[in-house]
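Hi V.,

Quick status before I head out on leave. The structure for the redesign project is tokenized and pasted below; the design run finished overnight.
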């Protein structure tokens, strides 16, 4: 799997996520973002690796059924951070929104442990779907699927096509899943 080989070269980066990551505004794609030594965000573009042929079959979010729900540890909670709404269609436009593209890149990363202090992100238009790894952590499609379901129930803000950001924080696992607007702060 080509994605894994590039991911292993990342093992050396990533200081602890002591501070939030101010998302750079980036073109649509898949990125691993961390804070550089100068305190500024730095990224690795893994878009081409995720899109490596054979192209994955596109699926509609509604058609994806995850059988096993994650056994969330106690202390897990949803938050609806204020400000910086994004266009709902960039999260959910059929198979092109970040809900789906993040799912695909999560799936293609397999059991890879993203280094502590990194955020796995997917950008489409105004929307960024992400996972924060406060310690080395893998991305799980069943966790992503369930986390979004949970936060959608808690953070229902919608207006004129715009949607409020939300995340699920899992302190016991040192990770967080969420979606936010490009350019805002996450993790
Ligand atoms: C990342 O790669 C994709 C696909 O190759 C490209 O479209 C995009 O512009 C790249 N992003 C940056 C910031 O260079």
């Amino acid at each position: 799997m080509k994605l894994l080989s590039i991911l292993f070269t990342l093992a050396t980066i990533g200081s602890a996520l002591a501070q939030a990551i101010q998302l750079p505004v980036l073109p649509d794609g898949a990125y691993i973002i961390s804070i550089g030594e100068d305190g500024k965000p730095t990224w690795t573009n893994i878009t081409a690796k995720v899109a490596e042929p054979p192209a994955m079959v596109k699926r509609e979010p509604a058609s994806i059924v995850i059988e096993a729900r994650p056994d969330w540890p106690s202390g897990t909670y949803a938050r609806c951070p204020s400000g910086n709404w994004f266009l709902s269609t960039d999260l959910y436009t059929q198979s092109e929104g970040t809900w789906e593209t993040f799912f695909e890149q999560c799936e293609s990363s397999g059991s890879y442990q993203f280094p502590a202090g990194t955020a796995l992100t997917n950008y489409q238009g105004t929307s960024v779907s992400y996972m924060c790894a406060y310690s080395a952590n893998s991305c799980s499609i069943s966790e992503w699927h369930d986390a979004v379901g949970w936060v959608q129930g808690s953070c229902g803000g919608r207006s004129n096509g715009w949607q409020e950001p939300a995340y699920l924080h899992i302190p016991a696992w040192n990770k967080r899943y969420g979606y936010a607007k490009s350019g805002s702060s996450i993790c």
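Above is the designed sequence. Helices lie at 2-8, 47-50, 88-92, 98-108, 141-154.

G. will cover questions while I'm gone.

Best,
W.
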